[in-house]
């Protein structure tokens, strides 16, 4: 890619809830001289975001008031090609990506611009991979999807564990079981809209999850649904099960579908080990709590899938509309902690990924911002061109950046304490 392009990073969708916060993050965290532009379809709204952030931010590395604005429509491929030809990297926050993202990715591949986004729409990403991967690889273009809370913790967490298994244990990685042991965060209307769209695409997978939950809960036995791998550890379990390591009941985690598929895809591409797989669940206080979480999540998703009930939820402000999301104080008070248990042929070791802000916004903005900066300034021959998850494209370079920003990605022979566990984190921020 030529270094003579006008911009280093173009934030596409800068007027969205996430896009505005991404512009702010880049203004605060980019190297001096970084050229950032704001993009979208409404010039007036883009000017409003620019003026608002310029008034809010002072003495920052990048002057928001000096940022250019570029205007285009997500369906206008010709105009998008003109726009992306001016930038090294496009960071897109415009979803659902199935509806609004395809032409932008096609434009990036056609005009040789690198790209990152925060989608969790796995079928759409695979579609882009099938359609554009060969051309992107041939042109040395990097299309890194799923660079937010979907799916950086699981994706880079497994990448970290595979590195450890290879470098320290001299063995391939067999399986990783992830468990969300603590989380506090809000959700935006855009994320919910994307999730509803995703479920409509993946009805069959969701139905299999539901059947698994029913069958695995029969008798509520701790041994139900367990299989053992070569190391003697239990990993493949029912959707509600008891975890012997954590000594806690585990339940359905709403992001497990996309995270398991993404980490598995990366593991096959990077050859973590023969038959590598990743599964993910959420810790609960007890069996009743585990069942309640699963039923509540699935029931809430069903209500969001139908237009009449969705409008009622919007009208009563039970859920936010697209473009809305949590406030800054709520974002600062969020956190998450992901415990990871990994197996090789000879034994088990552990990882921990955690963050100290709202996972869907505070952490996602960090992940996305550093992904864009990584593509803009760290790209070298170790980066794999094509349409892939972030670990496949940026790998160690992105992991290093996130660690430098205080994101916990740790690995060792024994279970690892988070930066702060769920109860400590909550009490600390409430003081």
Q: Name the poorly predicted regions.
A: 212-234, 420-431
SS content category:
alpha/beta
Total domain units: 2
Strand order of the largest sheet: 3-2-1-4-5-6-13
In whole angstroms, the N-to-C terminal distance is 49 Å
Throw out a few tags for this protein.
18% strand, Rossmann fold, 2 domains, alpha/beta, globular, 7-stranded parallel sheet, 14 strands, 7-stranded mixed sheet
Can you put this structure into words, describing what you see?
Helices cover 46% and strands 18% of the residues. By secondary structure, it is of the alpha/beta class. The chain folds into two domains: 7-144, Rossmann fold (3-Layer(aba) Sandwich), CATH 3.40.50.720; 152-359 and 407-430. Strand 2, helix 2 (43-56) and strand 3 form a beta-alpha-beta unit. The longest helix is centred in the C-terminal third of the chain and has 19 residues, at 287-305. The radius of gyration is 21 Å and the shape is globular. The model is unreliable at 212-234 and 420-431 (pLDDT under 50).
SSE arrangement:
Layout: E1 7-12, H1 17-29, E2 36-40, H2 43-56, E3 68-71, H3 77-84, E4 87-92, H4 97-100, H5 102-111, E5 114-117, H6 122-138, E6 142-144, H7 152-167, E7 175-184, H8 189-201, H9 203-216, E8 241-243, E9 248-251, H10 256-270, E10 277-284, H11 287-305, H12 307-315, H13 328-332, E11 335-343, E12 348-355, H14 359-377, E13 386-388, H15 390-393, H16 395-404, E14 408-412, H17 422-430
Parallel strand pairs: 1-2, 1-4, 2-3, 4-5, 5-6, 6-13, 7-10
Antiparallel strand pairs: 7-11, 8-9, 9-10, 11-12, 12-14
């Amino acid at each position: 890619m030529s270094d003579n392009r006008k911009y280093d990073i173009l934030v596409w969708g800068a007027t969205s809830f996430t896009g505005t916060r991404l512009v702010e993050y880049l203004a605060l965290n980019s190297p001096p001289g970084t050229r950032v532009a704001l993009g979208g379809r409404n010039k007036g709204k883009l000017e409003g975001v620019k003026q608002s952030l310029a008034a809010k931010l002072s003495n920052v590395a990048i002057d928001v008031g000096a940022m250019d604005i570029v205007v285009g429509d997500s369906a206008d491929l010709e105009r998008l090609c003109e726009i992306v030809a001016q930038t090294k990297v496009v960071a897109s926050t415009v979803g659902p990506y199935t509806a609004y993202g395809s032409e932008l990715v096609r434009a990036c591949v056609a005009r040789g611009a690198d790209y990152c986004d925060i989608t969790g729409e796995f079928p759409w990403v695979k579609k882009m991979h099938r359609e554009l991967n060969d051309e992107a690889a041939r042109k040395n273009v990097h299309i890194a999807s799923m660079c937010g809370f979907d799916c950086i913790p699981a994706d880079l967490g497994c990448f970290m564990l595979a590195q450890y298994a290879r470098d320290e244990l001299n063995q391939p990685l067999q399986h990783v079981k992830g468990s969300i042991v603590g989380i506090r965060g809000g959700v935006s209307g855009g994320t919910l809209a994307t999730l509803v769209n995703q479920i409509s695409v993946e009805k069959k997978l969701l139905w299999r999850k539901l059947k698994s939950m029913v069958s695995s809960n029969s008798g509520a036995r701790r041994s139900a649904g367990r299989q053992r791998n070569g190391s003697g550890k239990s990993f493949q379990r029912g959707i509600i099960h008891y975890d012997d390591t954590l000594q806690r009941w585990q339940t359905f985690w709403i992001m497990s579908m996309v995270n398991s598929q993404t980490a598995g895809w990366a593991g096959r591409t990077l050859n973590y080990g023969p038959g590598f797989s990743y599964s993910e669940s959420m810790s609960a206080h007890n069996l009743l709590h585990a069942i309640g979480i699963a039923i509540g999540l699935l029931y809430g998703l069903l209500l969001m899938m139908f237009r009449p009930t969705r409008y009622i939820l919007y009208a009563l402000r039970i859920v936010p509309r697209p473009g809305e999301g949590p406030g800054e104080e709520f974002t600062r008070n969020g956190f998450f902690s992901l415990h990871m248990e990994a197996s090789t042929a000879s034994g088990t070791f552990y990882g921990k990924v955690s963050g100290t802000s709202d996972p869907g916004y505070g952490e996602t903005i960090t992940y996305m911002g550093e992904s864009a900066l990584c593509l803009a300034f760290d790209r070298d021959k170790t980066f794999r061109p094509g349409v892939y998850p972030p670990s496949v494209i940026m790998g160690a370079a992105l992991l290093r950046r996130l660690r430098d920003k205080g994101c916990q990605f740790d690995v060792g022979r024994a279970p690892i304490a988070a930066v702060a566990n769920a109860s400590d984190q909550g009490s600390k921020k409430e003081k």
